[in-house]
Amino acid sequence: MDMTHYMELLATNQPWNLLIFMAVPVILAETIAVSELYILFTRNLKGTVRIINKFAGILAGFYFLIIFLHLFFKAVIPITMAGQWRTIIDVIAVGFYLLGVVPLLGISLLELDLIGKHKSEESKLKLHATFVAVFLVVAHIAMIFGMLSPSLLGGHSGMPGM
């Protein structure tokens, strides 16, 4: 199989893996991103859109934390121990996908006032928007590398020593 573990995960067990590992996180992240733009333009921190943004933010972070823990222990550690990474392309795809937990969990913690508690509303908006931007960047890097063929760098078998 000449694909990254990222793409293999999404292609296996159709449609469930695609829904669990891609659709739900992307729908939540895009809900956050779109509502974030509305909030930034209107500065309406009390309306329905803000409530949707807050709910999606809390849910996305903890949902992705569960995904992170599941994949870290069920995929990353076993793949690493067996030396089965499919070139650095594979490592980047999976690594950046899992890195999405940092900004998404940051959004959840911010929404629950577990971080940034003493910041002004303006500062919280900036931090929230920064987390959204960071997530969009790492998710797109994961998708781009995930769609590449590991054979572009000369192989598809395991990477001994990784």
UniProtKB/TrEMBL annotation:
<dbReference type="Pfam" id="PF20617">
    <property type="entry name" value="DUF6803"/>
</dbReference>
<keyword id="KW-1133">Transmembrane helix</keyword>
<feature type="transmembrane region" description="Helical">
    <location>
        <begin position="85"/>
        <end position="110"/>
    </location>
</feature>
<keyword id="KW-0812">Transmembrane</keyword>
<feature type="transmembrane region" description="Helical">
    <location>
        <begin position="16"/>
        <end position="39"/>
    </location>
</feature>
<protein>
    <submittedName>
        <fullName>Permease</fullName>
    </submittedName>
</protein>
<keyword id="KW-0472">Membrane</keyword>
<dbReference type="InterPro" id="IPR046547">
    <property type="entry name" value="DUF6803"/>
</dbReference>
<feature type="transmembrane region" description="Helical">
    <location>
        <begin position="51"/>
        <end position="73"/>
    </location>
</feature>
<feature type="transmembrane region" description="Helical">
    <location>
        <begin position="131"/>
        <end position="153"/>
    </location>
</feature>
